[in-house]
Design a protein that fits this description.
The complex is a heterodimer of chains A (516) and B (331). Helix content of chain A is 33%, strand content 24%. In chain A, the strands form 5 sheets. Chain A has a 6-stranded mixed beta sheet, with helices on both faces. Chain A has a 6-stranded mixed beta sheet with strand order 16-19-20-13-21-22, with helices on both faces. With 516 residues, chain A is of the alpha/beta class. Chain A is globular, with a radius of gyration of 26 Å. Chain B has a single domain, classed as ABC transporter involved in vitamin B12 uptake, BtuC, CATH 1.10.3470. By secondary structure, chain B is mainly alpha-helical. Chain B is built from 12 helices and 4 strands, in the order H-H-H-H-H-E-E-E-H-H-H-H-E-H-H-H. In chain B, strand 2 and strand 3 form a beta hairpin. The radius of gyration of chain B is 21 Å and the shape is globular. The chains are: A alpha/beta (516), B mainly alpha (331). At the A-B interface, helix 10, helix 11, helix 12, helix 13 and strand 18 of A face helix 1, helix 7, helix 8 and helix 12 of B.
Chain lengths: 516, 331
């Protein structure tokens, strides 16, 4: 119906395509965004940068109509607008390409592109020929020659599926394209091709919001960059006028304060010594040592292989080669059960999926990892079970009306405390924590940090994965930085700063110059 | 923070109490309440003879529902149990008629029940095929196989001592004794044994259970094997009541059994429920069916009523969950 606008907008000349001012958004217990402003002009790639939890996702969800802001305004082409649904945003020309591609694998490229707005041939019939022709025209307009309109999407590579998503956005005459970590799952050559498409769209006057963790990409493709931190606007820069270390500093800031009650405890003998651990495809020859009483922080970007390493150490995905010694003794860990019996505890990243049995009571969740020890002749010693749970509730300060309460009804922080407590009931020698405080409130965070210190004081060796740099810096005796399945740097507490660790995480020195 | 926390805790506590007492107490009340109301309309409903017939005739459903509840709590389902009971009844009766020792004719259904169900459980657990598909396949195999092998012939002239269900213990008919005993043992085991706990954990969150050292696959096989055992017992109670065993499967039996579990408070999503609830629900359903006759309602309404009951229970369960979820987010 509506043809793409013919007017050529010179970058920066007219009003921004999209502008948000002083956006406020609060979720129960969490201030997700406060006073955030952001704009995209025609023909620019505006990168949005920030750590996990900085508010990037919330901001794009507001721009794409998924959430309504509590305060602030959204302007499209200089006119104030309200989006009450994603449909509104779509009509205003905003298209979003999420990390998880939303395509129908059984349908063809053309059907996917025009799903919901297929050209009609009267009496409601779909005009297949017109649809095909328009899909081909779209493909040709981006000079995509290895993709046919009649191919079934399920058989396509990730890169090609992403191109279909982009075409779908263009078929809606999108003027503003939001790309959420578009390169997360792409191969090197797909990234190059994606950048090529992004440049074409930019030349055509589309405004692109580009979310990425990877600084090198921002330098390769971005025109401007806005940095968010803890839901607040930190600043915007022209990419040409900034450098990686400034951006890292803006992202992580200087927030390491006494939120982290790290106490100095004597560090003892090695508890875990791992040599040349390999597990295809994410763990590529990794060696590390964690000593009694020591907290080792594992820093790295999402996708750098930290969680995979943790799961390999815990036997969920056993190592293919390498050597693991526990308390000086060589061991083979083939299963989670084996790891557990050898004194390793693992508190997984996603407590909903991996940690907690939500419909079960607090009591039963606490005892689940210790059922063997609590049972005699197959029956659970209920007195001991209750004592253990009540002790755990007290020790971990779980806020619950009683141990009979259903675990799924407690707040996130309290759920996390149960998961932690469940594992510690076994008195492990080595504790692996994956994002121990993600998504929980500040108070619960501080309590979990206090517990970690307490455990280290009791001689437990702790390996902590965290995407929050302040947490890593605040809690660790030693920081290991992981990138692309390997350790790329190691810092002791004195030398670990947001600048040094941040730079190692980004691989800044190595790859910023890698312009595409 | 504090006021909200206290309010939340109070709400949670009342929720906890409600949950703890809810389904079983509600069902017991319904069983008694319905008897009183129908008895008021037609006193003959309360005759010992009628109540005893009601329990005798439906004990096997309650027994089968024990195993079914375990299966559903573990996050699975079984729709082959009706056909299996039909097949086992035929085998048991045939053995007895052929002159096999009575003990053998009683034990074979138990052993076969365990074997068939354990095999299904293994396919579900290790080949990761959804239980509904596996048991649907088994349903057809058993049903078709039974008709093909027996040609629909009835089994008559069962030996006198075959009729286990005619015995009684302390003046209580054997089917009722077995039903109560099976329910009590299963309830204690589910609640207090490590294996019982593993069933709830597997159905509630298999991944978390695995990380805690529970073996979800082994648990699923065990649950199906137990379900087969209870199906075997249900077969005994059912078949030894009959003078003539029709070699067909009791129509709609699997649905009646599933209804008892679900109405008894077993969450179709897994992880929640008790066998006391399912036994009470089985009794309630039987009572409703019988009551219809006594208040002069066409028995054709039975199925519709049963369906209504299942829908009402599931909708109530879902609404409870949604309210809970909404509360979690809004406050």
């Amino acid at each position: 119906m509506s043809a793409p606008p013919e007017t050529d907008v010179a970058p920066g000349a007219a009003a921004p395509l999209l502008e948000v001012r002083d956006i406020e958004k609060t979720f129960p217990g969490v201030r997700a965004l406060s006073g955030v402003s952001f704009e995209v002009r025609a023909g620019e790639v505006h990168a949005l940068l920030g750590e996990n939890g900085a508010g990037k996702s919330t901001l794009i969800k507001i721009i794409s109509g998924v959430y309504e802001p509590d305060g602030g305004s959204i302007l499209i082409g200089g006119r104030e607008t309200r989006f009450t649904s994603p449909e509104d945003a779509k009509r205003a020309g905003v298209a979003t390409i999420y990390q998880e591609l939303l395509l129908f694998p059984e349908l063809t490229v053309a059907e996917n592109i025009f799903l919901g707005h297929a050209p009609r041939a009267g009496m409601g019939r779909i005009d297949w020929r017109a649809m095909r022709a328009r899909a081909e025209a779209l493909l040709a307009s981006l000079e995509i020659d290895d993709l046919a309109a009649n191919q079934v999407v399920g058989a396509l590579s990730v890169g090609n599926r992403q191109r279909v998503e982009i075409l779908r956005a263009l078929s809606h005459d999108a003027r503003i394209l939001i790309m959420d970590e578009p390169t997360a799952a792409l191969t090197e050559s797909d990234v190059t091709r994606l950048f090529d498409i992004v440049r074409r769209l930019r030349a055509r006057g589309v405004g692109i919001v580009y979310i990425s963790h990877r600084l090198d990409e921002i330098f390769a493709i971005g025109d401007r960059v806005t940095v968010l931190r803890d839901g607040a606007y930190v600043g915007a820069r022209n990419v040409a006028d900034t450098n990686a270390s400034e951006l890292v500093q803006m992202m992580v800031g200087r927030r390491i304060d006494n939120l982290f009650p790290k106490t100095t405890v004597p560090i003892g003998a090695p508890v875990l010594e791992a040599r040349d651990i390999v597990r295809h495809p994410m763990t590529k020859s990794v060696s590390l040592t964690v000593r009694a009483g020591e907290i080792v922080g594992l820093a790295g970007l999402v996708g750098s292989g930290r969680s995979e390493l943790a799961q390999t150490l815990f036997g969920i995905t056993p190592a293919e080669s390498g050597e693991i010694r526990l308390m000086g003794e060589g061991v083979t860990i083939r299963s989670a059960e084996g790891a557990r019996s050898k004194g390793i505890a693992y508190v997984p990243e996603d407590r909903g999926v991996q940690g907690l049995v939500r419909p079960m009571s607090v009591l039963h969740n606490f005892s689940l990892a210790a059922l063997g020890a609590l049972s005699r002749a197959g029956f659970i010693d209920r007195g001991a079970e209750r004592r253990m749970a009540e002790e755990g509730v007290q020790r971990f300060r779980v806020k619950t009306s009683s141990v009979e309460e259903i675990a799924g009804r407690l707040s996130g922080g309290n759920q996390q405390k149960i998961v932690l407590g469940k594992w510690l009931a076994n008195n492990p020698k080595l504790l692996i924590l994956d994002e121990p405080t993600r998504g929980i409130d500040v108070g619960a965070k501080a309590e979990i940090h206090r517990l970690m210190s307490e455990l280290a004081g009791a001689g437990v060796a702790i390996l902590m994965i965290s995407s929050e740099l302040p947490e890593v810096l605040g809690m660790s005796d030693r920081v290991l930085v992981m990138r692309e399945g390997r350790f790329v740097a190691e810092f002791d507490r004195a030398h670990a700063t947001s600048e040094t660790v941040g730079a190692a995480m980004m691989g800044e020195a190595a790859s910023v110059e890698r312009a595409a | 923070m504090s006021a909200a926390a206290i309010a939340g805790a109070a709400r949670a506590q009342s929720g906890g109490l409600r949950r703890f007492a809810s389904q079983e107490a509600l069902l017991a009340l319904a069983v008694i309440g319905l008897a009183v109301v129908v008895g008021f309309i037609n006193p003959r409903f309360l005759a010992t003879r009628n109540l005893s017939d009601l329990l005798l005739g439906n004990a096997y459903i309650a027994i089968a529902a024990i195993g079914m509840s375990m299966v559903i709590i573990s996050g699975n389902i079984d729709i082959s149990v009706g056909a299996l009971i039909g097949v086992l009844a035929t085998i048991s009766g045939s053995l007895a008629v052929a002159g096999a020792p009575i003990l053998v004719s009683w034990l074979v259904p138990l052993v076969l029940g365990v074997a068939v169900m354990a095999a299904q459980g293994a396919v579900v657990a290790y080949l990761r095929i959804p239980a509904i598909v596996v048991t649907l396949g088994m349903l057809s195999i058993l049903k078709g196989g039974l008709i093909s092998v027996t040609g629909g012939k009835w089994i008559t002239d069962l030996p006198q001592n075959f009729h286990l269900a005619d015995l009684s213990f302390l003046n209580v008919p054997m089917p009722v004794v077995i039903m109560v005993l099976a329910t009590a043992l299963a309830a204690v085991w589910m609640r207090y044994s490590a294996s019982g706990r593993a069933i709830y954990a597997t159905g509630g969150n298999a991944e978390a259970a695995r990380l805690c050292g529970v073996n979800p696959q082994r648990t699923v096989v065990m649950v199906f094997a137990l379900h087969g055992f209870f199906a075997g017992i249900a077969t005994l109670v059912y078949a030894t009541q009959l003078r003539v065993i029709q070699s067909t499967t009791p129509p709609g039996l699997e649905l009646t059994v599933i209804t008892a579990s679900v109405v008894g408070g077993v969450s179709i999503l897994g992880g929640v429920g008790t066998v006391v609830g399912s036994t009470l629900a089985a009794i309630l359903i039987a009572e409703i069916t019988s009551a219809l006759v006594f208040i002069n309602v066409s028995p054709y309404w039975t199925d519709a009523l049963r369906g209504g009951l299942i829908l009402a229970t599931v909708i109530a369960d879902i609404l409870r969950r949604q309210r809970r979820a909404a509360r979690g987010w809004s406050k």
